[in-house]
Design brief:
five-stranded antiparallel β-sheet, three-stranded antiparallel β-sheet, single chain, 2 domains, mainly beta, 50% strand, 135 residues
């Protein structure tokens, strides 16, 4: 968040720029030469940038509730680099196929692309081997 304070003394009555400190107490102020007011105006500007990310995840199931396919599309935070990327992933259990494309969110450059038989897609995410060493 950025906070900006205009430290120029301005008359609160007529807006004239005054030749005094902006933060003088009332008893130390001189009347405004244009309107005679002792009221002072202080301009404070606060701004903040908000970044919005979205992602969509869909599951296609049969009438018994068994997952046939899962689709994920949208922004994804890469935790190692703390950068946002665009992820397109389709896991099709009915066709036993896995496709994933990851692109740089800014340039659109393809960072990685995988399209393979789902049975060959091992050692990733939840399919990674668990660490069996004693802690």
């Amino acid at each position: 968040m950025a906070v900006e304070v205009d430290k120029e003394a301005k008359c609160g009555g007529c807006g004239a720029t005054l030749d005094e400190q902006y933060n003088l107490p009332l008893e130390a102020r001189t009347p405004c030469p244009k309107c005679g007011s002792l009221i002072r105006a202080l301009r404070i500007s606060i701004s903040e940038t908000v970044e919005v990310h979205d992602s969509l995840r869909l599951a296609h199931k049969d009438s018994d509730g068994k997952k046939l396919a899962q689709i994920q599309s949208g922004d994804d935070l890469h935790r190692d680099t703390n950068t946002w990327r665009v992820l397109e992933r389709v896991i099709d259990w009915s066709k036993k196929w896995y496709t994933e494309t990851i692109k740089d969110r800014t340039t659109g450059e393809v960072i990685s692309h995988t399209s393979e038989d789902l049975r060959a897609h091992t050692g990733h995410g939840a399919a990674k081997p668990k660490d069996t060493r004693d802690s």
